[in-house]
């Protein structure tokens, strides 16, 4: 089962290397990894997606918490959370397919971020399922290049007062 972990780490050289080393040393797979500084420049927020049964995820969390650079580890997939990815997709945009591409952008709320005589570069943001749907619809038109961020996630706030 897929799990999304939110990890608060010290923003120092080598912290990310120690975390990824933990995974490779124990033959755990990282499906996606995103890291950026927080409002506090001494801390970074790491969003990590991995797979495994409850025992494996529990072991990963325990091992992460042992690392000196790690302040907090939360499995956000245990509750309600918001998760998004972003992708840049460069697609062939011949004269006859330009209108169709723009209609798809409108339907999926994509942005055209670059235009050339032969291609459009689209920015797509949303859950993984939305990105997959856009990619499958653009594939017959001709995708030239794709880059994706991987998941970022945040626990939802409680809706009650």
Description:
The protein has 161 residues and is of the alpha+beta class. It has two domains: 2-78, Alpha-Beta Plaits (2-Layer Sandwich), CATH 3.30.70; 83-154, ACT-like. Chain A, domain 2 (Alpha-Beta Plaits, 2-Layer Sandwich). The chain is 29% helix and 42% strand. It has four helices and nine strands. It has helices at 15-25, 54-66, 98-108, 128-138; strands spanning 2-10, 30-37, 43-51, 70-75, 81-92, 111-115, 119-126, 143-148, 152-155. The strands form two sheets. Strands 5, 6, 7, 8 and 9 form a five-stranded antiparallel beta sheet that branches. Strands 2-3-1-4 form a four-stranded antiparallel beta sheet, covered by helices on one side. A hairpin with a 5-residue loop joins strand 2 and strand 3. The radius of gyration is 19 Å and the shape is elongated.
Features:
alpha+beta; Alpha-Beta Plaits; four-stranded antiparallel β-sheet
Arithmetic mean of pLDDT:
93
SSE order, one letter for each helix or strand = EHEEHEEHEEHEE
Number of strands: 9
> What's the total helix number?
4
Low-pLDDT segments: none
Would you tell me the structural class of the helices and strands? alpha+beta
CATH first level of the largest domain:
Alpha Beta
Q: Which strand-content bin applies to the residues?
A: 35-45%
- The percent of residues in helical segments reads 25-40%
Q: What value does the Rg take, in angstroms? A: 19 Å
Q: State the CATH architecture of the largest domain.
A: 2-Layer Sandwich
CATH topology of the largest domain: Alpha-Beta Plaits
The coarse overall form would be elongated
**CATH homologous superfamily label of the largest domain:** ACT domain
Q: How would you characterize the largest beta sheet?
A: 5 strands, antiparallel
Write down the domain tally: 2
Q: Distance N terminus to C terminus?
A: 33 Å
């Amino acid at each position: 089962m897929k799990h999304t972990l939110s990890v608060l780490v010290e923003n120092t050289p080598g912290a990310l290397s120690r975390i990824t080393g933990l995974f490779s040393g124990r033959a755990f797979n990282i499906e996606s990894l995103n890291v950026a500084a927080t409002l506090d420049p001494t801390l970074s927020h790491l969003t990590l997606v991995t797979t495994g049964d409850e025992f494996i995820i529990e072991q990963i969390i325990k091992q992460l918490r042992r690392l000196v650079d790690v302040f907090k580890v939360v499995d956000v997939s245990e509750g309600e959370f918001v998760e998004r990815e972003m992708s840049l997709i460069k697609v062939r945009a011949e004269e006859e397919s330009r209108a169709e591409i723009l209609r798809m952008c409108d339907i999926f709320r994509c942005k055209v971020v670059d235009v050339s005589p032969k291609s459009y570069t689209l920015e797509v943001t949303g859950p993984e399922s939305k990105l997959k749907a856009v990619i499958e619809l653009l594939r017959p038109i001709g995708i030239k290049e794709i880059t994706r961020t991987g998941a970022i996630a945040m626990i939802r706030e409680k809706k009650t007062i």
